[in-house]
Specification:
Blueprint (H helix, E strand, L loop, with lengths): L2 H11 L1 H6 L2 E8 L15 H16 L4 E6 L8 H16 L6 E8 L2 E4 L4 E4 L13 H7 L1 E2 H11 L2 E7 L8 H18 L8 H15 L7 E3 L11
Parallel strand pairs: 1-2, 1-3, 3-7, 7-8
Antiparallel strand pairs: 4-5, 5-6
Helix pairs in contact: 1-3, 4-6
Length: 236
């Protein structure tokens, strides 16, 4: 989180939030520590915890009604369930309020990775212990957290929100894994069109573009990425 941190501070400090008189609820997550077992280890992201605390302080200065700051330690690694459970918790806290102008702000800083072709973003929790190339796609997806899972929960709450993903969006998927996922996509498209399936490349590309647009979460509620797809994000 370098220039992005400064930009986020500027956006969130503008008179807009105060002018709208939002009652703010936030979840600020920093995942600095990662399990050091298995054949693939994620390095310690020292700045992640610091970034989460900085953002929490900013939200408090904006007059947040309630907030949760979730940071890691060597003995307390952040898991996928930790993140999702706390998303549920901050939503429940917001729902208890009688305000008609509530806003949830979600912030995540830690490791992340992308998926070529579709531009999915996966948040990498601290307890991920899979070995690259040695797990099935199903196992891989059970360990990591897709950003859309967070956005889906926030959307379902019916409360306005801002989601900030301060992490890398770089791909680490092998060509073999991409072939597996590509075949999965073909099977999925066949399932969606049981009356007949045309392997027309233009139609496939149109489908991929549609999926990429979904993953960028265009909509009323802002979803902010610290870097573009295939890029890395530096921490403070």
């Amino acid at each position: 989180m370098n220039k992005f941190w400064i930009i986020s501070l500027f956006i969130l400090s503008t008179p807009f939030l105060k002018a709208q008189n939002f009652e703010i609820f936030y979840l600020s997550i920093g995942s600095s520590h990662y399990i050091q077992e298995g054949s693939y280890n994620y390095s310690t992201a020292v700045g992640a915890n610091k970034s989460a605390k900085i953002m929490s302080n900013l939200f408090d200065e904006l007059g947040a009604k309630k907030g949760i700051t979730l940071t890691s330690s060597e003995d307390n690694l952040i898991s996928k369930n930790n993140i999702l459970d706390n998303v549920d918790k901050i939503i429940e806290d917001a729902k208890k309020s009688n305000s008609k102008n509530k806003l949830i702000i979600f912030y995540y800083c830690g490791h992340g990775m992308g998926l070529p072709m579709f531009e999915y973003l996966f948040l990498i929790p601290g307890n991920v212990d899979y070995k690259m190339g040695e797990v099935t796609t199903e196992t891989f997806l059970s360990k990591v957290l897709m950003h859309l899972e967070v956005c889906y929960k926030l959307n379902q709450s019916g409360i306005r929100y801002i989601a900030i993903f301060d992490c890398c969006w770089e791909s680490e998927i092998s060509s073999e894994r991409m072939i597996e996922i590509f075949n999965f996509a073909i099977d999925f498209n066949k399932m969606m069109n049981p009356k007949g399936y045309d392997m027309d490349s233009a139609k496939l590309e149109e489908t991929y573009k549609f999926i990429r647009d979904i993953n960028r979460v265009y909509g009323v509620d802002p979803v902010i990425f610290s870097c573009d797809f295939s890029k890395t994000a530096k921490t403070v």
